[in-house]
Structure formats: C-alpha cells, structure tokens
Write a structure and sequence with these properties.
This protein is of the alpha/beta class. The chain is 31% helix and 19% strand.
Length: 130
C-alpha cells in the first residue's frame, strides 16, 4: 500500500513574474523622465513658497551679466518684443515665464513685464522653491 502524498511542493521560486514587474517599472520611469526636461538656463532664482505653473512654453531669461535669452537663444534687449510677438502669434492665452537671476536689478525685469503687459501676455516670474 502506497500512502505517500502525490502533491509535492516544489522548493523552487519562480522569478518570471518579479522580472516582469521590474521591467514594466523600468519602462515607466524611463518614459516619464524624458517628459520632465526643462528648457531653461541654469540660473540662481529667488526663493518663494508659490509654484510656477508648468504649461508655459516660452521663457525669457536674464542672467547676472544682464544678457537676455528666449528659450536659451541669446537676444538683444530691443529685439525681445518682436521675437515674443512672432513666437506667441496665434495662441489663445499667450504666456511667458520670466527667469531672472537674484542679482539682476528689478528694472530689467520690469522691462520684460512691461512688454508682456503691452501685448496682453500672461507673465509669470519663476522662483526656486524653498
């Protein structure tokens, strides 16, 4: 008479489901990390508690040497308004992000804000979170 159990538990651990999950997570993080690229210069921004909205696509940057940039492209101060009008033509709610370094005098920032006001652009001053 054979009384041994027929169902034997295998001591091996199957890793295929674990590798599938890790592979899917890897793909997810690779795809989402490419969507988080910033199109801006490396500036030391002033700190604030508010957050800059993420849906603007045109950035006007001013570095500490008072050089002006529109989306990393150097531009002269007197050409900013024309370039912004060309870039924002046809948009329903045109908006710009002003990225000025801490040491930039407020007069230079106000010039860009005045251009935005004259042309009815929304202007957001970018800051660094605290």
């Amino acid at each position: 008479m054979n009384l041994r159990g027929r169902n034997k538990v295998s001591p091996n651990f199957n890793m295929s489901s674990m590798t599938d999950i890790v592979f899917l997570l890897l793909i997810f993080f690779m795809l989402t990390s490419t969507l988080v690229t910033t199109n801006a210069l490396d500036l030391l921004l002033p700190k604030a508690k508010g957050k800059t909205s993420k849906n603007q696509n045109i950035a006007v940057s001013i570095d500490k040497e008072l050089n002006y940039f529109i989306d990393r492209t150097p531009i002269e101060e007197d050409q900013i308004e024309g370039k912004l009008l060309n870039l924002l033509a046809g948009q329903e709610e045109p908006a710009i992000v002003i990225r000025a370094e801490r040491s930039v005098p407020i007069d230079n920032v106000v010039k860009v804000l005045d251009i935005a006001r004259r042309n009815r652009f929304k202007a957001v001053l970018a800051t660094q979170p605290k």
